[in-house]
Every structure is written in structure tokens, then in C-alpha cells.
From TrEMBL:
This is Putative glutathione S-transferase. GO terms for molecular function: transferase activity. PROSITE patterns: GST_CTER (PS50405), GST_NTER (PS50404). Belongs to the GST superfamily. Keywords: Transferase.
Length: 256
């Protein structure tokens, strides 16, 4: 069941830092846009958005902002002529979605995504790491062997599929106990990975789950509590508005 959206607030009069998201289509920047949309609705956050289609030209443009050319990139400008703050290494420049989300929560979110108890804070911290270091990592291993059959010329697809499918199946087998752990972690008392209310671990978990769902690595019918969690995420107003503002979010078509 979807949570009711937070009532919109006027733009804060004292907002002196303006975040700008550089979003590459079909990328991890999508969940950053989602949280920007939620903070815009609930806290009156003003932000800017620049969108890039998936192309070599876009990667070249992103490389001019950050040498790695990755997305998401968040740049910060100020409204009072002061220099932008240094959050990571360079002034006014952030990369890595987990770090960007933490900054947005700390700077603009108040207690919106902060668990209420110490137990839930520790749980939130664990699942934030688990999302990147376990779920997404196993997905990446599967994708390495899954994508080649999508990108080779048609006449070679059957051969490449036959060569790579055993490794894909190996990593998909490794993913099943991970999904089961996530399923077992959810309950009526703690319906979110952050515990009693949604936290940043839930936001970070969406990337690995989006990959799993889009690429059909998971059968959600086997994991009903995980399916309910995923439905609650997708039905949030900010999530839906972010999908409309992005340039598409299809994680099955990367290699096509």
C-alpha cells in the first residue's frame, strides 16, 4: 500500500545551496532524482536537473564535469556568492550515489530518512552496505556474462549465449539466498530495510532490485514480502514523478 505523499511546503527562504543533478538515462542517477523529487515536495527543496541520453557524446560531456564521466554527478552552486562547500574532494562536486544520497539527507532532509531508534539506525547502515557490496555486486557478475549475447551480431547470438549462459546461471543461483535474506528481513513490525520507516538503505536497495526485476533475475512471486516492499517503493509519488522527469529507466536494454 502506498504511503500518503507529504504535503508540499514552500521553497525554504534560507536555501543557499542549489544542487544540480547530472542524470544519465538508465543509470543509478534515477534514484537520486527520486529523492530530490521527494525533498522538493516535502521540504520545498529547489534543485536543477540536466539530462543526458546514453551516448558517447554524453559520456564525453560528463567527463568534463568529473574525470571519470560517471553518473550520477551532483554539482552545488550557492545563492550568496560564497564558494560551494567541499563535501568529498573537489568543491561543489559529488559522485557516487550512496554518498550523494547521504549528503542530500543530511543537508536538506532533516529526519525524513533517519531511523528513529538505534536498532533501526544500525539496521539501516547494514542494509546500505549490503545493497552495494552483496546484491549489486552479484548482479554485476551476472550482467558481465548476460550482456554479450545481447550485443553481438545476430548470427553469433546462439553461440555466445551457449558459452555464457552457464556462468549467468551460476550467478543467478548465488542471488537466490540473497533474495531470501531480504525477504526474511521484512515484517509487519519492520516493513522497510531501515526498520519501521523508509530510510536510505531502502533507496539504495532499489538499484539492485531494479536490475533484478528488469532483467528477470528474480521471481517476485517467490518472495511476497519483498514484492510488497518493491510495490510500495514504486507507488511513491516522488518515485513516479522522477520516472516522468528522467530520460527512461530500462535496465534490460543496456546492451541493445
Amino acid at each position: 500500500m502506498a504511503e500518503p505523499p507529504s504535503p508540499p511546503n514552500p521553497q525554504p527562504s534560507k536555501q543557499t545551496i542549489i544542487p544540480k543533478l547530472h542524470l544519465l538515462a538508465h543509470s543509478q542517477a534515477q534514484r537520486v532524482l527520486w529523492i530530490l523529487e521527494e525533498l522538493s515536495a516535502s521540504k520545498g527543496l529547489h534543485y536543477e536537473l540536466e539530462r543526458y541520453p546514453r551516448s558517447r557524446a554524453s559520456l564525453a560531456s560528463l567527463s568534463k564535469i568529473h574525470p571519470l564521466g560517471k553518473s550520477p554527478i551532483l554539482t552545488l552552486s550557492t545563492t550568496d556568492s560564497s564558494p560551494p562547500p567541499t563535501i568529498q574532494v573537489q568543491p561543489g562536486l559529488l559522485t557516487e550515489s550512496v554518498s550523494i544520497l547521504q549528503y542530500l539527507s543530511d543537508e536538506f532532509g532533516g529526519d525524513t530518512y533517519v531511523p528513529e531508534s538505534l536498532e533501526d539506525k544500525r539496521r539501516d547502515a547494514f542494509f546500505t552496505v549490503f545493497a552495494a557490496d552483496t546484491l549489486s555486486l552479484k548482479n554485476d557478475f551476472a550482467i558481465i556474462y548476460d550482456v554479450p549475447a545481447q550485443v553481438v551480431p545476430w548470427g553469433f547470438k546462439t553461440i555466445v549465449w551457449a558459452l555464457t549462459r552457464p556462468m549467468v546461471n551460476h550467478w543467478l543461483s548465488d542471488l537466490q539466498p540473497i533474495y531470501q535474506l531480504l525477504e526474511d528481513a521484512l515484517s509487519d513490525e519492520k516493513p522497510w530495510f531501515a526498520g519501521k520507516k523508509m530510510g536510505l538503505s531502502d533507496v539504495n536497495m532499489t538499484w539492485g532490485m531494479d536490475v533484478s526485476v528488469h532483467r528477470k533475475y528474480i521471481d517476485l512471486k517467490k518472495f511476497p514480502k519483498l514484492a510488497e516492499w518493491y510495490e510500495r517503493i514504486e507507488s511513491r509519488e516522488g518515485y513516479q514523478s522522477a520516472l516522468k522527469k528522467g530520460l527512461g529507466f530500462d535496465l534490460n536494454s543496456w546492451g541493445q
